[in-house]
Amino acid sequence: SQNVEEFNVAAREKTIGIGIKDGSQFKQFKSVELSQQSFEWRLNNDTLSPFAVTANNTQFITIAKCTKEGSTRCYDVKLKDGADKWLNVTYSGLQVIASTKSINTSTTQKQTGKIVFIVKHSALTNGEELVLQTIDVEQNKYIWDFNHSVKNEYEPVYSTASDYQGKITIKSSGGWIASTTNSSIASLSLTAGSGNETTGETIDVVVQPNYSLKSREVTITVSNSDINKTETIMLIQKPYVFDVESSAVTLEAAKGSKQELNVSCSNGNNWSVEVADDGKEWLKAENKSGKLAIETLTANNTKADRTTKVTVHSNDGANLSIEITVTQKAEVVEEK
């Protein structure tokens, strides 16, 4: 009969007996074996990889076998358990095309759900579902992993280049933008990334020497518009220090009168000193293991004090100078 009273996926068989019924007795002459074919269904791929975090990430499910009712599609697809919120499904021939609706902006949770294949057949009444197969699906969570070795505070100058440096490493499912409030102070090797979830992308931060007598601040910002995330690093660089213990020195009249002054310099002993031309004959000054050593070369046999200038210079990009007044007393002559 073409009238289908019941729909069944599995094959089924039945035996019909033909005979004569006499009263309560049935005498069978012949039996007939009847069979109904099963509804055939098979997928080429019955699992899907996790969908990427991005929108429009597409995967295909291929129908290998499906008993058809005429020329119409023999199945329907429903999205269940939350899959309808983030997944679209369309049909193309023997393929089901599953595509993500939007980016998953959650950094803590995957999107999950099910793709359910059901029979599409006229024998099924409205609302009745006969499930053929179910595929679990998920969309990855958004990866955002931000780490850095940039120091909060930097010295004005260092002896090695590596002390001026820091690194920022970003693992991200999507692109990001990096900026600095002053690139002449702290420069960035990379200001934009396309996203790398596995090994990440690295920004090299290089802090320039500070030859100013004032401290300075720089803010580095890394932003990801996908997840509305902004990371901020603030670094402070100390001021350059260059100072001499005293701005004036007085020495005795005798030859060999001397005095040492402490010199504070961010660049250690990297400074020099010179005596003005009018004092070179009677005074010497030198950098003696980081101290300013001043000594008279001759005695002052006159009746008047004599004065000259000693200038201390920083020998680096600071280009700073400090001037010191040096006085040698006059010889004391006792009156008779």
Q: What is the SS-derived class? A: mainly beta
Strand order of the largest sheet: 11-18-17-13-15
User: What's the count of strands?
Assistant: 26
Percent of residues in β-strands = over 45%
- Report the uncertain regions: 1-6
Mean pLDDT over the residues:
89
Share of residues in helices: under 10%
Order of helices and strands: EEEEEEEEEEEEEEEEEEEEEEEEEE
Molecular structure report:
The structure is a single chain. With 336 residues, the protein is an all-beta fold. It is 0% helix and 51% strand. The chain has strands at 12-22, 25-36, 41-43, 58-66, 75-80, 87-92, 95-100, 111-119, 131-139, 144-148, 153-154, 165-172, 176-180, 186-188, 192-193, 201-207, 216-224, 229-237, 242-244, 248-251, 258-265, 271-275, 283-288, 291-296, 306-314, 321-328. Mean pLDDT is 89; it is low at 1-6.
Q: Secondary structure elements and their pairing?
A:
Layout: E1 12-22, E2 25-36, E3 41-43, E4 58-66, E5 75-80, E6 87-92, E7 95-100, E8 111-119, E9 131-139, E10 144-148, E11 153-154, E12 165-172, E13 176-180, E14 186-188, E15 192-193, E16 201-207, E17 216-224, E18 229-237, E19 242-244, E20 248-251, E21 258-265, E22 271-275, E23 283-288, E24 291-296, E25 306-314, E26 321-328
Parallel strand pairs: 11-18, 20-26
Antiparallel strand pairs: 1-2, 3-4, 4-7, 5-8, 6-7, 8-9, 10-12, 12-16, 13-15, 13-17, 14-16, 17-18, 19-21, 21-24, 22-25, 23-24, 25-26
Features:
336 residues, five-stranded mixed sheet, four-stranded antiparallel sheet, 0% helix
Quick overview of this protein structure:
With 336 residues, this protein is an all-beta fold.
